[in-house]
Amino acid sequence: MAPLLSLTVLVDNNTIIDHYFSGEPGLSFLITTQGRKILFDTGYSNLFLQNAKSLGKDLLDLDMVVISHGHLDHTGGLPDLVRHLTRAIIEEVPARRPRVIAHPYCFYPRPKLPIPNIGSIVTEEELRRHFSVELSTSPRWLTEDLVFLGQIGRTFDFEYTTAGKRKILMPDGRIEDDELLDDTALAFRSEKGLVIITGCSHAGICNIVEHAKRVCGEERIAGIIGGLHLLSPDQPRLKKTVSYLRNLHLQSLHACHCTSLSSKIALAASCPLQEIGVGMTLIFE
Fold this sequence. Notes:
Layout: E1 5-11, E2 28-33, E3 36-40, H1 47-54, E4 64-66, H2 72-75, H3 78-90, E5 99-102, H4 124-130, E6 132-135, E7 140-141, E8 146-148, E9 167-169, E10 175-177, E11 185-190, E12 193-198, H5 205-216, E13 221-227, H6 235-246, E14 252-256, H7 261-268, E15 281-284
Parallel strand pairs: 3-4, 4-5, 5-6, 12-13, 13-14
Antiparallel strand pairs: 1-2, 1-15, 2-3, 7-8, 8-11, 9-10, 11-12
């Protein structure tokens, strides 16, 4: 029997008609597969908990919390998850202590002046008080068919962007340009090929796909869901990205979060772009 993966959108910039949930500029997916329950990112606030409650989804029995990268719109809900689990313990409600899986740089402070920190407001040290934390630059198989991709290889020059004002504070006190090396994604092996699940794709969606192919030993890409970080790409980058994705012969492309309308229009001309928004559940097999 083929493995199934169910993905429910708890947080996205967009909501959809006749689904009465709230959105925010962030991302959070609830994934279930092979008996495992995985929260992928936590959005910017406690909205992922509110929407999960409205959907009848229990987040006290999570097996894992996977963080795509350290930015606030993906880690901002972590303090609320800590409070949610702590309250359950106080009230003697059954709750599981999930594993947190991320890149080692994920919880480093990220000054971007005049903002003192655009990264996680929860430190790795504090997280370890509440969760089992596993940090890795290498791929990690979460189930037989779902893999955390680790640090993404940067292959395509056209996807490179300069750090600009982005900085990262290293443990030894050095402040470096933030190349967002912690940006990662998930890949699911379906019968029809890989399904790529992204947070923001700062590493570049084409780089992510190529990395996933190498990790999984699979050339077929069935679908992509998540942020593509095509907010205001220059035309050469957008054109090359569209060309690359078109040649994948995708069955579905659910571009959300940090993907602008103009980029979606360009993608829709060549790719099977489909609806996505808070409250939607997608099934892959």
